[in-house]
Model the fold of this input.
Amino acid sequence: MSNKILSAKTCTPCRGGVPPLAPDEAEALRSKNTPDWRLEDEARRVERGFAFADFRQALDFVDQVGALAESEGHHPDIAFGWGYATISLQTKKIMGLNENDFIMAAKIDGVHEAAKRQNAR
Done:
């Protein structure tokens, strides 16, 4: 499954009671679809750092990611400041990763690519 196929999916609500992805399953999804992200906390979380030219670009990116999170109903942890943003995803109801986290990661990658094109103008 490529990043484009994964980013075309929509997050589905997690009601809990489902096991999180096993580390090898999470790594397979990460490496195929979102290779710039890294697994953290024994494969219970996926995270990526993003660099920007200034605070405004980082803020604009974070605003777009926030709007995406609201539309998908899947909310990342976000840290940002002058020239950077760090996004961390985990399905909190299961305290681990599921496909939704990688769908969001792929969609966030798309937001970042669009931001890079916009900032290059």
